[in-house]
Amino acid sequence: MNGDKLKSWNDGPVKQSIINFLDSTVEEGLDYVKPEDRIATFDNDGTLWAEKPAPVQLNFLFLAFTKRVQNEPFLADKQPYKAILERDKIFFQNVIEQKPEAIIALEDVLAREWAGKTPDEFESEVKEFFATVKPEKFESNFTELIYKPMLELFDLLKDYKYRVFICSGGGRDFMRVICEEAWGIFKENVIGSAAEYEYNNGTLKRGTVLRGIALGPGKVEHIFARTGRLPVFAVGNGDVDIEMLESAKFRLFINHDDDKREYAYENGSEKILAIAKEKNFTIVSMKNDWKEIFK
Amino acid sequence: MNGDKLKSWNDGPVKQSIINFLDSTVEEGLDYVKPEDRIATFDNDGTLWAEKPAPVQLNFLFLAFTKRVQNEPFLADKQPYKAILERDKIFFQNVIEQKPEAIIALEDVLAREWAGKTPDEFESEVKEFFATVKPEKFESNFTELIYKPMLELFDLLKDYKYRVFICSGGGRDFMRVICEEAWGIFKENVIGSAAEYEYNNGTLKRGTVLRGIALGPGKVEHIFARTGRLPVFAVGNGDVDIEMLESAKFRLFINHDDDKREYAYENGSEKILAIAKEKNFTIVSMKNDWKEIFK
Fold this sequence. Notes:
The structure is a homodimer of 295-residue chains.
Chain A: H1 13-26, E1 39-42, H2 56-71, H3 81-85, H4 89-96, H5 100-113, H6 119-132, H7 148-159, E2 163-171, H8 172-176, H9 179-183, E3 190-193, E4 195-200, E5 203-210, H10 217-227, E6 233-236, H11 242-246, E7 250-255, H12 270-278, E8 282-285, H13 286-289
Parallel strand pairs in A: 1-2, 1-6, 2-3, 6-7, 7-8
Antiparallel strand pairs in A: 4-5
Helix pairs in contact in A: 4-5
């Protein structure tokens, strides 16, 4: 097999190392990976689509919480509503660093906000969001800002009989609304943070509990719970992806260094960038390794 | 397509109704089911293999708890160890009926028993169990007592591009040890009750918490959490499968009525049998509909 599918990738050591690794896992030898073990996992925000100026789902949360505070004004001064609506950087930094207080506060409001909704009701809200809210920097829809090289990599992995999973700290049910059309990935292969649903009298409704946001070690825990395995091939871009990448054999780190075609930043990726260099992860320069960025 | 794959099934209305239903879901018309929605879910104990005289995994639990009580004799008089080791029918009836006290007690000891073990350590224990403990009534291994007609049904469903999931109240990680070899089903398609794992310093270990046993409405909740959908095609045999079957379009109920080749009983299936008749589920008579029972 070869990398003809990676048309948006420039030829060079990064593209070649992906192909060499995949070849080695299907050929007899020390690096052979049994078909059942061929699991690949991808982060979403910043790995499959732009996460600046803010992760896509945060726009959805802001909208919902803004409406909520309009209806219940006393919440405006309460945490974490206040922090979320003021886009308080410290609050979100604490979430990224998985500080328990910030995580618990966020889990709590996320669970409450949509409690009692059916899957169809939640899906309608998400669809309306995607139909009406547009990205800031680009004239397009969020779902058009998915990285073409990543979709090509999904295809290549499937040729090698890898099963591809998305594992995001973001909302599982939010991603599942778009995963089949946008990524060609079935809902069941989407892993993320999620409210627990309750089934009563023939109806499934969101409960009031959300447990275990899939960040940092939580990504590995969610992947094992879902698949019974650790990934062989893992792709991520943020500090919250460190553990997922370290748990895999092949680690692909996406470096956002292209401020002309997308965004250039290291904020939220300082630690993983250092580890990637130190531990010889394969580092994708979006600027140099990708001919095209968006699908 | 046709039912040539169902070689162990006698021709008759049950076999025909399975084939008719599957045909109708892939042909244009009112019953057409989009490929992405084609989810089939199967219970395990009593649906894929014998659950009498006791579910297979209970033998595994008895062994582990017996050893535990030998090492810590003071536990012998403590609940739920006492009830489990004395095979106290009331305790297990309460579990089947999902009485909160029994469920919480069971979750607690199940989580504690293997807390701190890695996935590999747990897998070794399960493998040793299957290699050394044999069924009471049959001269074979537990994994040879899997129902051949069900394996044929997996194959048929795959021809129709259904994705097959197993959803058991039993242990997810217990079933995942045998699922690929015994059923030809990837670990990620096995849904069940499970301890939460914790990832620390590059090592995954079982935690002390087990939440949400997949019984009754819990089966539907687990299926939705895992797949983002409700099943189109569902198969079960016990009262704990009622909700799963009711949530599906096609409901196949396995009636254990063959005491010569297996076991005949209604205990634990009284309610679902009544509902199956009342709501026109498709009822499999193991005695009449299956030419062969075991693979």
